[in-house]
Specification:
Blueprint: E1 6-11, H1 15-27, E2 30-35, H2 37-41, H3 49-58, E3 62-64, H4 67-75, E4 80-82, E5 103-106, H5 116-125, E6 130-134, E7 152-156, H6 160-168, E8 173-174
Parallel strand pairs: 1-2, 2-3, 3-4, 5-6, 5-8, 6-7
Amino acid sequence: RERPSVVLVANPPVIAPLLVWFVSWFLGCRFVLDVHSGAFQHRRWSWSMPLQRFLARRALCTVVTNDHMASLVRSWGARPLPVQDIALDLAPSGPAARNGAFPAVFICTHSVDEPVAAVVEAARRLPQMSFSFTGDPAYAPKGFRESLPGNVRLTGFTPDAEYLALSRGADPILALTREDHTM
């Protein structure tokens, strides 16, 4: 009923842009792909690379997060649009929440590319520090909570004000990945 002229669709999962491409024929609209790094790098989506190339060539453009991925999209004969994430205003002034004597914050989503086990082991070896892991612990592997040393706190996703206070109060902030070219 609305008949949009352009549809923005995220990938992965590749099924969503495939459906949008198909429906775009009937609606007479165009589409823009917003492709996350996992679509290019995770083995989970490697089977879909020919389909992703096909869709990228038919899209108005493909939004990617860095120049490496833009080059890859360009090599497919498609139009990349590199857009880095808009940084959250960390507002250096304001309250700081310090959790323990030398608080560390691990920005974490429990994704397969994050070295969560290594950070847990570091926490175990550094009992004089306190570690706050952000992100939803429901995505952690089974038995994760039970394996944590006492100096690790799971914050879950928090409201911006609480997240900023936690970040301002940290001595180190860790945002780690095992994969190249990942935002």
